[in-house]
Amino acid sequence: MENKLINFHIYRYHLLPLDSKSKQIELFERKSLSHEEIKAKKNIFFGKTLDNLTSSKNSNYPLKLEHSQNGFYLFKIAQKKTTTITQNFESLVVDNEPYVYVIINNDPTVQKVAISDNIDAFSNPDVVKNILKKVFRSELLNAGLNIEIEQLFDSVNFWEFVNKHKKDITFINFQFIKPNLANISKSLPEVFKNFADNVNSHESQISIKAPEKGTLDNIDKTNKNIEGLVEYTSNGAGSIKLKVKNIRKQLNTKENPVILQVRELDIEGPAEQVIKLYQTIVQE
User: Fold this and answer.
1) Angle at CA 108, nearest 5°, toward 137 and 111?
2) Whose CA is closest to 230, among 113, 152, 148?
3) Which of 49, 50, 151, 172 has CA 20 to 30 A from 208's CA?
4) SS (H, E, C) 22-84
């Protein structure tokens, strides 16, 4: 095995009750739980889902659980493909299953997912995210839960861009997930929390647009509503699109993700070494 570097894209997942009302919901355990009880047990239900995904060979995306310990999980997920090789001067079509690594921290105060890059398997980590989201949603449905997964982005680079073009900003769109994690949701302005909760919106968008031939004002850190939205979304709870006058391409925070690098030999090493490494990748 080559001692190559692997890029991990860091995401945050959010476990949200499907129903925001306080009625009793019949679950797979043949128990009736309220909205608040489901919220309290959401990570227990997700842990059971992950424990049950030890392997999957009946799809185009085989999945295998490599390690798990104390709420940390290391999976491999592959894509079934065929490739052409030359042998004895002839072209042969053979099966191929290139894969990526998926690391999960199910601590209810963290809830992070790390997905590695491998263009031989998937065009980008977001493709893997969407596959996982589909699998998890199917399994969590019986627990009365939905899951949303959003990538962390670098807020420093965002503010540098804003400060550089402060007088020319014409449009901003904030997409944010309904608050789920206390340690990051405290930055989201209360009015937006209450709005999302009141209508049971798991994904909301706020767009602000300047008048024609005008620009937006007060787009800086002294505006606590703007600062709170930036901080909240950058921590893996959404994304931002921003348009500047006379610049055709808009800024999209999805194009500036948080990435960590590790050596492939380290993640394929002895169990004790691997566990310590992947816990570090998705730590708080």
Assistant:
1) 60
2) 152
3) 151
4) CCCEECCCCCEECHHHHHHCHHHHHHHHHHHCCEECCCCCCEEEEEEECCEEEEEEECCEEEE
Judge contact between 258 and 239, C-beta under 8 A.
no
Confidence band, pLDDT 50/70/90 cuts, at residue 36: confident
Torsion angles phi and psi, residue 99, rounded to 5? -135, 170
Contacts of 32 (CB under 8 A, 6+ apart): 24, 25, 26
Distance CA 64, CA 157 (A): 36
d(CA 247, CA 57) in angstroms, rounded, equals: 48
Of 157, 152, 159, give the one whose Cα is nearest residue 227. Answer: 159
pTM over 0.85: yes
Burial degree of 107 (CB within 10 A; 0-12, 13-18, 19+):
middle
Mean pLDDT over each residue of the chain, to the nearest integer? 88
CB-based contacts of 145, cutoff 8 Å, min separation 6: 15, 16, 17, 18, 38, 42, 45, 46
Of 45 and 270, which is predicted with more confidence?
Answer: 45
Neighbours of 72 (CB within 10 A): 21
Over the stretch 88-135, which tens digit does the pLDDT of each residue have? 778 788 888 899 999 999 999 999 999 999 999 999 999 999 999 999
- Helix-helix angle 42-52:125-140, to 10 degrees: 110
What pLDDT is attached to residue 21? 65
- Does the pLDDT of residue 3 top 80, yes or no? no
Phi, psi of 197 (to 5 degrees): -70, -40
